[in-house]
Amino acid sequence: MKSPRMPSCWPISDWPSADQKAWTCAAESDPLAREGQGASSHWRVTTRRFVQVGYGNWLGWLDARHGVCLDETPAQRATVARVREYLNELTQAGLADYTRAGRMQALGDALRTMCPETPTAFIGKLAGHLYAEARPLRDLNGRLRPAREILDLGYHLMQSANTDHLPGVRRPIAFRDGLLIALWACRMLRVANLSQIAIDGQLLRTGDRHRVEFSAAEMKQRRPWGCSWPERLEDALAEYISEHRPRLAARGQAGSKVLWLSQFGTPMPPESVAQVIKLRTKAAFGQSISSHLMRHIGATGLAEAYSNSSIDIAAMLGHATTDTAEKHYILGRGAAAVRDYNAVLDTL
């Protein structure tokens, strides 16, 4: 039997006017606003987008199944019966555990900030229960590769830029992609942070070495985080900055200090960085490796290399606590994979 297809997500322009107004008020940061107003003013852009899409999914489903009910407030529409029906249909549609939990979390967060005077805490509690019981849909063990292979891919791409006589812009692009992937393999940064790196901004020179530093506002967990640039990639960084990056910069906006530039000379957004990683790893290994999966690889290697190492994993991945590392990233691997991974790390 074919799983039911979920209705389309409603863009914010299609939301009922009362919902749009409540969403806007929740985002305002006026300290003298009424109680509850500005409840989401501290959210990151990515958080706001996540909740907005989740609420749009709810409205799309609600309209298809019950009508949006314009005479009701956002909170009045979210009855226990309707939320239960929504969750049941998400399950029947075959959505992964974490996706269903995320839909509930987004709905609960939207209502909590848009209608602070109305109790909708049951949705947040439901989301918490779903997260606690969630299991990955795919077998990640079968997709893990030694980090050494990913690092070698980076080296290969940089070497091809200098030996394969690539024409035009393909040469600096190949070197850029190779350096990006090699750094990613060594430091396992989130794609959002990878794309943020700017010369003399997050990338700082101290003596004859470089460091990468992110402020609390730039990190997902709102904690400052930093690490040394891999020593093995110092020469490659110098070559990229002095030779390849200027060729890309000449094709676009002058003056940008963002490290990773596109073929048009513009800063690469997170989506473009993620696409580069997926396309290059799929071409090399037959299966793409996402940023999230790379962090599984790193945490797994540390967990098997060192007993009681979850605190090191948390620090390396930028987590506020060890719980996230232990629950989401540690997967069993053999000793050979651990040896390969340890070869990548400069220090812990």
What's the arrangement of secondary structure elements?
Layout: H1 17-27, H2 45-65, H3 74-77, H4 80-92, H5 97-114, H6 121-133, H7 147-163, H8 170-187, H9 191-196, E1 203-206, E2 209-214, E3 225-228, H10 234-249, H11 270-285, H12 291-305, H13 310-317, H14 322-329, H15 335-342
Antiparallel strand pairs: 1-2, 2-3
Describe the structure.
The chain has helices at 17-27, 45-65, 74-77, 80-92, 97-114, 121-133, 147-163, 170-187, 191-196, 234-249, 270-285, 291-305, 310-317, 322-329, 335-342, and strands spanning 203-206, 209-214, 225-228. The protein has 348 residues and is mainly alpha-helical. β1 (203-206) and β2 form a beta hairpin. α12 runs antiparallel to α13 and α13 packs across α14. The longest helix has 21 residues, at 45-65. The protein is elongated and about 65 Å long.
Features:
348 residues; mainly alpha; disordered C terminus
Radius of gyration: 23 Å
Order of helices and strands: HHHHHHHHHEEEHHHHHH
Q: Main sheet, how many strands, which sense, barrel?
A: 3 strands, antiparallel
Number of strands: 3
Strand order of the largest sheet: 1-2-3
Percent of residues in β-strands: under 5%
How far the N terminus sits from the C terminus, by CA atoms, comes to: 50 Å
Mean pLDDT: 78
**Segments where pLDDT lies below 50 for 5+ residues?**
305-314, 319-348
Structural class: mainly alpha
| C-alpha geometry | elongated
Number of helices: 15
* Helix proportion: 55-70%
